[in-house]
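chain below, 209 aa
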Amino acid sequence: MQLINAVEYVNWGKAQLQFLVCEDCGYVGCAPEGWVELKRADPLVLIMPAFTSIGEASEIIHSEYSPPYYLVERGAIYVEQEIYTKTFCQIAAFPRLETLAPLSAWEAAKLFQLEAPSRVLGHLSTPLQFNQALVIASSEGNFREQTKALTALINRLLTQLHPAKLQRVTEQDHIISLSLDLAGFPEWQALSYNGSRYALYLEPGYVIE
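prediction:
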């Protein structure tokens, strides 16, 4: 996977970075797509879509700020902060760790939207929308109860003012897959349950606190 196609042409120093620039001229903004943001969520640095730019752009041009293909296909990239500092910052002009803004709760919700299959939470350019009727079963437990918990957790994130926290799942966390009434009946690893409460699950093995 090619993270950046021309390190020397990236618009380092800006909040939103174009990692895949025009291959003909190298000018930032000439080619559409390929935009990312870097955010900090201890103990991680996240390379993720430029959600703010996508959300603020009009319906006509929001695709200009779409993320690189690899984020669409695989989701955000989670980097341990030590690796970010000792590797990423040494090979290119990545911003210093202490200058990165913390991951907001709204951005954490957008990460969850990004990972959801079949755009079940809507397109990245739109607010999160979830039709609870699409959930028809779960890998364990009561899927109706879990669907309500999922909706409540999303709504809490969207109204939360302080930064989001990500924690690695533990042996006590059970990952719950929800079956969706969509073509192919996809399964969505959406929740974690530790015996007392649910949390939103992100595929690399983290829960959103």
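The longest strand covers residues 35-41. The mean pLDDT is 93.
thats it, cya
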